Automatic annotation (TrEMBL):
It is a single-pass membrane protein. Pfam families: COX7C (PF02935). InterPro entries: COX7C/Cox8 (IPR004202), COX7C/Cox8_sf (IPR036636). One of its GO terms (cellular component) is respiratory chain complex IV. It comes from the Eukaryota. Component of the cytochrome c oxidase (complex IV, CIV), a multisubunit enzyme composed of a catalytic core of 3 subunits and several supernumerary subunits. The complex exists as a monomer or a dimer and forms supercomplexes (SCs) in the inner mitochondrial membrane with ubiquinol-cytochrome c oxidoreductase (cytochrome b-c1 complex, complex III, CIII). Belongs to the cytochrome c oxidase VIIc family. It comes from Dispira parvispora. This is Cytochrome c oxidase subunit 8, mitochondrial. The chain crosses the membrane at residues 43-66. It is found in: Mitochondrion inner membrane. Pathway: Energy metabolism; oxidative phosphorylation.
Length: 70
């Protein structure tokens, strides 16, 4: 790592600390997913539907094309 990259990392960390201190040490909880994860049952249903759709779609498309060509 060259000196410029090291200095950049140091200043980036200092900037983040400075921004946190300016906010009074309080920061909002940032959720990295675009949906609510507090409801565990709802999350389980959403994950199951997402997984079933992603896994089943190629099989559905293959079935549709085979049925359509016959």
């Amino acid at each position: 790592m060259n000196a410029f990259a090291a200095r950049s990392l140091i200043t980036r960390g200092a900037f983040a600390r400075q921004r946190l201190l300016r906010s009074g040490g309080h920061h909002e909880h940032m959720n990295p997913v675009p949906f609510n994860t507090d409801n565990k049952a709802g999350l389980a249903v959403k994950v199951a539907l997402f997984t079933a759709t992603g896994f089943g779609l190629p099989f559905f498309v293959a079935w549709y094309h085979l049925r359509d060509s016959a």
